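Before relying on records like the one below, remember that each one covers exactly one chain. Contacts with other chains, cofactors or solvent are not represented anywhere in the record.
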Amino acid sequence: MTEQKPVTQANAAPAVPTLPDAQTVTAVEHYTDRLFSFRCTRPASLRFRSGEFVMIGLMGDPDPKTGRIKPLLRAYSIASPSWDEELEFYSIKVPDGPLTSRLQHINVGDEIILRPKPVGTLVHDALIPGKRIWFFATGTGFAPFASLLREPQTYEDYDEVIITHTCREAGELTYGRDLIAALKDDELLNEVIGEGFWKKIRYYPTTTREQSPKMGRITDLMRSGEAFADLGVAPLCRENDRAMICGNLAFNLELKEMLEEYGLEEGANSKPAQYVVEKAFLD
């Protein structure tokens, strides 16, 4: 009888993906009881522009009548830049949400579904040249800007980068604050983009419920002029300013109206202009 060798990590056959378009989770970090981020492997064939989104998810429960299982998929902005070897996502936790109620419990080594067809409007190609770029975000709408803040083209195209982030509680600002702070010590980006590139960034976080150094909705702070005074900049103008918006639906609509009052026009991949809105995202 031939001696059977024990199966070890070294000689075990590669695991067969149990999900369609499966990718493996490589890191998970929880920030509050409502927010978390995770990283996963990137398909070798996936190409995307910083700021785009993809459909990700998990398999749902079997249909009570047919027993068939369908995937639960939602649009998620890719938070990592286009050059990153892995993919990063930033997510809200919804207790009764069909997907996020389950997605929030993923661990390193688990698999998720990732449909490798990136799309989206929050890309540099959808804007005409300008001097200053504004990123307006609420909640997990910070995700596409996490990608664009680590994209070399952002700093090649603009002299100044202003990122506003409005959340209800101070803890919800942690992901964005830590990411921006880490740019100072990012050796790769400082080498590729240029030493001190991060000095172009003006970060303006605000909260609406919990006490913080700056309270208020960014739209109210802009209307009063307080935001511009705090930042030491002039209000937006058609000639110099470009903007990207990613937040809840009411925020998107309100800010769209404001930007048009400043004279900015909405752009698209097919017709670049002064500002763009991510229509797929709902906080």
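Confidence is low (pLDDT under 50) at residues 1-17.
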